[in-house]
Specification:
The protein is of the alpha/beta class. The chain contains 6 helices and 11 strands. It has a domain of 156 residues: Vaccinia Virus protein VP39 (Rossmann fold, 3-Layer(aba) Sandwich). The strands form 3 sheets. The protein has a 7-stranded mixed beta sheet. The protein has a two-stranded antiparallel ribbon with strand order 1-2. Strand 1 and strand 2 form a beta hairpin. The chain binds S-adenosyl-L-homocysteine.
Length: 253
């Protein structure tokens, strides 16, 4: 596989030249998988097999692999889709939204922590969705603030996360385009929804030395994964591979 194209300014610590998920990511629902995963009573073997496949594709950050191995993705999807929970596929979570495929989630989490000398402190997540990625972030960061604009999904995620007792995850019903100033500054900001630009509020709320990872359709009009590092010299933007995330929308619903 080729290295990510479309790079603007290289940033130390990014995986240039590594064959990490260089193919275009697609977070839209795929056709139903024909191979049942056979979750049975214990899903850990199926989950570990998923993690092995992701590692074989290039995902290498141990903390991310451990989190993917620990969090039970099947608990976050509707019961009819449980057999596809450990396929590398995006799945519908209701209201036209999707849970991203595990390789995309892993890729974004890896970008968040790569090159950091210290563990993540406060992290802002835009688009709680079903709460799966929030549960992963809870294992990688000290505090997670996760915003969702759709009340029904916010409440569903709250119900899914409650039994996990993740005391460092704060779910907020709110418009993520405004960020969440109360928790700022953030060591990392991660968006699971993409607009035409990166909202200024996110840049303002990013801590010095912090990193933002989000899909956005910048100048080319094509949605790509964008990484922004807040350095002493200002914000440095890197555009990585093409992706397909649900739209970033303003206001609550
Ligand atoms: N990471 C999520 C993926 C959810 S899909 C998961 O693990 O399930 C993206 C989510 O972003 C959707 O739920 C959508 O409603 C939400 N979203 C879109 N625009 C938003 C905004 N301005 N503020 C908060 N959430 C937003």
């Amino acid at each position: 596989m080729a290295a990510p194209a479309l790079t603007t300014q290289p940033v130390p610590g990014l995986p240039y030249g590594r064959p990490l998920a260089a193919a275009a990511h697609d977070s839209r629902p795929a056709a139903p998988a024909l191979v049942p995963s056979g979750l049975g009573l214990d899903s850990s073997a199926v989950r570990l097999a998923m993690v092995s496949r992701l590692a074989a594709q290039g995902l290498s950050e141990p903390a991310v692999l451990q989190a993917l191995a620990a969090v039970e993705r099947h608990r976050f999807v509707d019961s009819a889709l449980v057999n596809q929970a450990y396929e590398d596929t995006s799945l519908p979570i209701g209201l036209g939204q999707t849970i991203s495929k595990p390789s995309v989630v892993g890729r974004m989490l890896e970008l968040l922590i790569q090159g950091r000398s210290r563990p993540l402190g406060r992290v802002l997540e835009i688009g709680t969705g079903c709460g799966y990625q929030s549960a992963l972030l809870a294992r990688l960061a000290r505090e997670v603030y996760s915003l969702e604009r759709l009340r029904a999904l916010h409440e569903k995620a709250r119900d899914k996360l409650r039994p996990l007792r993740l005391h460092n995850v704060h779910l907020i019903l709110g418009d993520g385009m405004l960020g969440y100033p109360k928790g700022a500054p953030y060591d990392a900001i991660l968006s699971a929804a993409g607009g035409d630009s990166i909202p200024q509020a996110w840049l303002d709320q990013l801590a010095p030395g912090g990193r933002l990872v989000a899909p956005a359709a910048l100048a080319s009009g094509r949605q790509s994964l964008v990484v922004i590092d807040k350095t002493d010299q200002g914000c440095v933007q890197t555009v990585l591979e093409a992706v397909h995330f649900v739209p970033l929308k303003s206001g609550l619903a």
